[in-house]
Amino acid sequence: MNQRKLGAARHAVCATMCYMAARARNVGVRELRQNLSVYLARVKRGQALTVTEHGRAVAELRPLPTSTDALGRLVEEGRVVPARRPPSALPRPLRLPPGRPVSALLDELREDSI
Question: Which end of the chain has fewer CB atoms < 10 Å from its terminal CB, N or C?
Fold first, then answer.
């Protein structure tokens, strides 16, 4: 294909795609319906879209989580940070003397630090 035809093809696509690019994160119901395959391709690439109706957000269109367990989904969403060390690296729990309330032991520890 020569340069002139290539440039013309690029401009023909731009009429719709430039409009869609300007509204990258929000998409109206009508626009979504008319260009569903384009927006689904964006979602497949990892982009989340907010669907609006009369200017009001009514839904979110986002990729499915790849993890099946709850912890994996939280890590993917950035809501938790996975542990850097295994649980075996944690210190052993303190042995508490029987019969004394934990609050009394805490009070003693706090007195020592003052």
Answer: C
Paired tokens of 90? 């944690």
- Alpha carbons 28 and 3: distance in angstroms, whole number: 35
What pLDDT is recorded for position 5? 53
Overall pTM surpassing 0.70 (yes/no): no
CATH of 3-82 given 3.40.50.2000, 1.20.1250.20, 3.40.1620.10, 3.60.110.10: 3.40.1620.10
Q: How far is CA 55 from CA 30, 49, 104, in A?
A: 12, 14, 59
Strand partners, 61: 49
